């Protein structure tokens, strides 16, 4: 085998191995309890979905507890039912009274617990999703942390409660979290349309289209002429 061919095969093999390691790393990094909100707009409501994979080789996941923030707390918390899992919203007295929407709040939902029956525990190579409706979200730029505790049937409890810091490596057990954003301005949505510019653009586009058509037709005609000449020459 030529040396150039060997180098090519070596390059392909190296690239394949690198891709495999990257894929493995991505899979390992994604094997965390994570949360995905459908909206992050401040002062609004959102649906959040927790993705809970089973990371044990010998036990199943039987319980999940998610802690909710208390300063400010959510004034609205509801749970989407999951087959085979019993959900419970825990309401407790807050460490200190807070003002939310002009009202003083002294107690609120501080955690949500999901417990599985035996048939619906999360086994090896499986995951389950759990959803909440939450509101209202705090001011824009706030990191909403939702620490979770994952309990296994062998008694092991994994706490996903470590804060992620920008510019630093992801911790071993990061807390599910997201950052709130400001509401979009309605003023930017009503941008006036320049009709003259639109007309000019349309004329320019049609000019390009017609020019392309003419080029194609001209090329076709030229090809037919050349073909006719070759046919006449061969007939002599």
From TrEMBL:
Residue ranges annotated for the YncI copper-binding domain, each copy included: 32-178
Residue stretches in coiled coil: none
CDD domains, sorted: YcnI_like
Presence of the UniProt keyword Transmembrane in the record: yes
Organism domain of life: Bacteria
TM segment ranges: 203-227
Record carries keyword Membrane: yes
Annotated signal sequence range: 1-31
Keyword annotations from UniProtKB, A to Z: Membrane, Signal, Transmembrane, Transmembrane helix
Cited InterPro entries: TAT_signal, YcnI-copper_dom, YcnI-like_sf
Protein name as catalogued: Nuclear export factor GLE1
Organism of origin: Arthrobacter livingstonensis
Lineage: Bacteria, Bacillati, Actinomycetota, Actinomycetes, Micrococcales
């Amino acid at each position: 085998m030529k040396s150039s061919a060997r180098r090519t095969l070596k390059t392909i093999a190296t690239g394949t191995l690198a891709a495999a390691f990257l894929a493995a790393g991505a899979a390992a990094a994604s094997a965390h309890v994570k949360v995905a909100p459908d909206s992050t707009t401040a002062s609004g409501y959102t649906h959040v979905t927790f993705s809970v994979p089973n990371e044990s080789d010998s036990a199943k996941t039987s319980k999940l507890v998610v802690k909710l923030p208390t300063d400010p707390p959510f004034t609205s918390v509801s749970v989407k039912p999951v087959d085979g899992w019993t959900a419970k919203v825990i309401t407790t007295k807050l460490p200190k009274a807070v003002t939310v929407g002009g009202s003083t709040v002294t107690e609120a939902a501080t955690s949500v617990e999901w417990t599985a029956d035996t048939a619906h525990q999360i086994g090896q190579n499986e995951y389950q999703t759990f959803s909440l409706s939450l509101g209202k979200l705090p001011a824009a730029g706030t990191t909403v942390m939702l620490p979770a505790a994952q309990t296994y049937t062998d008694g092991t409890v994994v706490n996903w409660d470590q804060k992620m810091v920008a510019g630093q490596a992801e911790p071993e057990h990061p807390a599910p979290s997201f950052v709130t954003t400001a509401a979009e301005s309605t003023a930017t949505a009503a941008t006036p349309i320049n009709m003259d510019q639109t007309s000019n653009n349309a004329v320019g586009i049609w000019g390009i289209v017609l020019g392309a058509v003419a080029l194609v037709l001209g090329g076709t005609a030229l090809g037919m002429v050349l073909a006719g000449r070759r046919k006449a020459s061969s007939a002599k």
